[in-house]
Design goal:
Length: about 110
Amino acid sequence: MRFFSVVVLFLFSFMAFAEGAGFRSLSYEWVDSSRNNRVVPVKIYYPESDEGKSWPMIIFSHGLGGTREGYAYLGEYWAKNGFISVHLQHAGSDDAVWKDVPHQPRR
């Protein structure tokens, strides 16, 4: 519960900031050679700035059935407010768990 409270306070603290100018995003497919060249899709949102400044980073996990494209509104918001946001896609728990799966009626 304590961790949850800290996360909630952290997220609400963003609301105190005025929305920044802009953001950019990049999509990558990293390859993990230690795991049989497993592909790790990643989308990175970052502040649009030419200041050469370093920014704090948020590592974001989409949860079961999601992808790196999900929760873009959070990545954009955080980037506009001075954070780098890294959205990783997890093979095996991404949209492959529901995509192309035939509908099963409830019992």
